[in-house]
Amino acid sequence: MEIKEIQEEIIDEFSMFDDWMQRYEYMIELGKSLPLINEAYKTDDNIIKGCQSKVWVHAELENNKLVFTADSDAIITKGIIAILIRVFSNQKPQDILDADTQFIDEIGLKEHLSPTRANGLVSMIKQLKLYAVAYQTQIED
Amino acid sequence: MLDIKKIRADFPILKREVNGKPLVYLDNAATSQTPQQVIDAIVDYYQNYNANIHRGVHTLSQEATDKYEQARNKIQKHFNAAKSHEIIFTSGTTHSINLVANGFSALIKKGDEILVSAMEHHSNIVPWQMLCERTGAILKVIPMNLEGELRMDVYDELLSDKTKLVFCNHISNALGTINPIEEIIEKAHKVGAAVLIDGAQAAPHLVADVQELDVDFYTCSAHKICGPTGVGMLYGKEEWLNKLPPYQGGGEMIAEVTFEKTTYAGLPHKFEAGTPNICGGIAFGAALDYMNAIDFEEIAKYEHELLEYATQELLKIDGLKIYGTAKNKTSVISFNIEGIHPYDMGSILDKLGIAVRTGHHCAQPIMDFYKIPGTVRASFAFYNTREEVDVLIAGVLKAKSMLL
Fold first, then answer.
1. Where does the record place the Fe-S metabolism associated domain (chain A) (predicted)?
2. 0.90 exceeded by pTM
């Protein structure tokens, strides 16, 4: 599926929730079910330092598509990571670079993108895009 | 007895809602809320006598100067400084500490020792590390025990004739511990060291008498005592302030300027380069008036009751651990629930309208000491209520049921 389609699917899913509590409960569930990152990749090199919660991201190129795995020590952050991975993993680097993150706003999680949240999420999106830039050049080479 | 209902009516912000719930503001150790009396002082300044101070001959400038200097006198009286020019207006505690640390660069030499407590805010660690890098002085740490109390036995061992400076907070922002600063100051003076006490967390809860303490430097920020942000004060003994070179150059801080040589103004202007936060200084004075009218002894008594009640209720929650259990502490409770990241707890409490601080509270060494990523910190002010403590407890239980 293309990034845009996945985003719309997620927006659809979230539109079923009536209030923040259901949204959060869903995110916590997503966080708990996120496949664990290979412990070998949970290194300081792969850490994205937010102010409060730690986020680890690992990227690998498979058949010209980027596959991300990630983890966090905070469960709500992990839930958001699960959503981001669903959107951006298994996509071509150029498509990742072209994609926007407007859908996060639309599913009512805008506050997690505010810099004051300091949860590493903004840095995480930036990091996913940086990986895409790096691997894009590899493909071109 | 405090009339809490009447006091709460002074704070317009306490009427607002957050995420559709009545605001329960428990982040007072970071910033206190502002009463109408202080807001009025700010408005009055901009509506009636906004002008630059100390240099204009016109009426507005003279009025602004008078009010600004009156505020300095209020601060002097509040902290019982011997002279008003021993009170320097700064942008806050961080600025004050940097001013002193920078000044000591000229007085410290290689091999001198600086002692700092293990429970300092980053603002009372980093400037001294920078000073040590510049001068070759050595930074040594006074450790703490598991309860969050300073190891005074180790302090005794660390003190020597090499010790030139001792820095410690009066009250820890992350743990609420009230440190035995009288003893710290007296012992430091015996070996000839100067002492700076960071009073940022103490000023909202108690009144420090700088002469009785015989402290060399004492500092605090207005925004933690119902004043505005971006203004604070540094008290320094006159003899020390005269020894320290100016921190920043600019207008206001000079006596005479030619391209060959500049001579500096006397105290306090030597340390107040440029146009200061005039309105902020005046509002700082208004905030002290407000707090003193309520009475600090009554405030301390009431906050202690809130602390005891909140501690007792929180400890009933299974898996909850409080960090900082000193016998002598203020109304700050740092806690975690086993298996829950403080960030998750804080996010859900926010959804319930409850403002707490989460994270390392700019005191990473303390978090490293306890081997935790951070804590949830609820800090109470005199305008908080027992009912708000109940809302916090219900919120923590709700978050726990969602997260575990």
1. 12-129
2. yes
Cα separation, B7 vs B168, in Å, equals 32
Across the interface, of A21, A51, A74, the residue whose CB is closest to B344 is A74
Chain B partners of A21 at a C-beta cutoff of 8 Å? Answer: 351, 402
pLDDT of residue B120: 85
| B362 a catalytic residue | yes
Domain hosting B13: range is 4-27+295-403
Q: Does domain A3-137 have CATH number 3.90.1010.10?
A: yes
**Of A12, A33, A43, A51, which residue is the catalytic one?**
A51
Q: What is the CATH number of the domain that holds B308?
A: 3.90.1150.10
B378, B309 in Cβ contact below 8 A? Answer: no
Q: What is the pLDDT of residue A36?
A: 74
Q: Do B403 and A77 touch (CB under 8 A)?
A: no
Closest in A24, A53, A118 to B341, CB measured? A53
Q: Mean pLDDT in each 10-residue stretch from start to end of chain B (404 residues)? A: 96 96 97 98 98 90 96 98 98 95 92 93 86 93 95 97 96 94 98 97 97 98 98 98 88 80 87 94 98 97 97 98 94 96 93 93 85 94 98 98 94
Q: Are residues B143 and B216 in the same domain?
A: yes
